[in-house]
Design goal:
The protein has 257 residues and is α/β, with parallel strands linked by helices. Helix content is 43%, strand content 17%. The chain binds NADP nicotinamide-adenine-dinucleotide phosphate.
Length: 257
């Protein structure tokens, strides 16, 4: 296998979840490599700042809203199309046990991680197929592999997103669309735990307490960049990435704990 990195100045990607965290870092990484990038999330002002810094095209959209997705596809088509879709938008809400599950939290997680990813993928598949060398990368989680107390809704959403990703790989191989799944463990990002824990900054900080080196958004973005940049016939089907301190879901080393 060659490790030669192909020219990327003709490559073009849609990156969702681009307003913060892993998605934002991925936009920066791809843009720095010469990709044309369409940065997607709901918060327009954050996308515009990122676009000004990186040269990416900001396209504010809610991936779970059909009208937004249709507008996004038109914007990308009008700008010359894309060969790669990087689905990073998503997240977690709540840590309630199933006995106390909040329906609105589960609905949010299923809508953003599963239905949103399905809607945007469905909408872009004709473009990716027509390109002849399409790529879809879905960012799921190790939460899709192992459940934990208080993780039910997020485990269910990420496991569903993973199941969809595996079906998509089988369905699209004949169209030469490669389908990559990246499954990170603990990544310390600005908003993930804060949003999951209802804005409680102290509780959010405790998630990472004593963990000397959790993954960073940049670590994951570098892996995404590599996976979508290797020659197109190389399909890194499933990439599980954790910090060394998290040897398994049940084994997280916290210094001083
Ligand atoms: N951090 C971790 O430990 C970790 C580990 C494994 C997997 N992951 C997964 O990695 C992804 C990114 O994680 P992160 O830590 O960077 O999370 P984050 O900081 O919470 O970012 C989530 C991103 O998704 C966007 N988003 C959410 N719902 C959306 C919707 N309906 N339409 C469009 N954009 C939407 C948000 O933007 P707007 O609010 O502006 O729309 C934001 O840009 C998520 O799918 C998460 O589940 C995270």
């Amino acid at each position: 296998m060659t490790t030669t990195v192909p020219q990327t100045d003709h490559r073009s990607a849609i990156v969702t979840g681009a307003s913060t965290g892993i998605g934002e870092a991925t936009v920066r990484a791809l843009a720095a490599d010469g990709w044309r990038v369409f940065a997607v999330a709901r918060r327009a002002e954050r996308l515009e700042g990122l676009a000004a810094e990186t040269g990416a095209v900001a396209v504010p959209a809610d991936i779970s809203e059909d009208d937004d997705v249709a507008r996004l596809v038109s914007a990308v088509a009008d700008a010359g199309g894309a060969d790669t879709l990087v689905n990073i938008a998503g997240g977690a809400r709540g840590t309630d046990w199933v006995a106390e599950a909040k329906t609105e939290d589960w609905e949010w997680m299923l809508r953003s991680n599963v239905l949103g990813t399905m809607k945007i993928t469905r909408a872009f598949l004709p473009m990716l197929r027509a390109n002849g060398h399409g790529t879809v990368l879905n960012l799921t989680s190790v939460a899709a592999l192992v459940s934990y107390e208080g993780g039910g809704g997020y485990n269910a959403a990420k496991a569903a997103e993973r199941a969809m990703t595996r079906a998509l790989r089988l369905e699209e191989a004949e169209n030469n669309v490669r389908v990559i799944e990246v499954l990170p463990g603990l990544v310390k990002t600005e908003e993930f735990s804060l949003r999951r824990l209802g804005g409680n900054a102290e509780a959010a900080e405790k998630v990472y307490e004593g963990v000397e080196e959790p993954l960073t958004a940049q670590d994951v973005a570098d892996i995404v960049r590599y996976a979508v940049t290797v020659p197109h016939h190389v399909n890194l089907d499933e990439i599980v990435v954790r910090p060394v301190a998290q040897a398994a879901a049940h084994k997280l080393i916290r210094k001083g704990a």
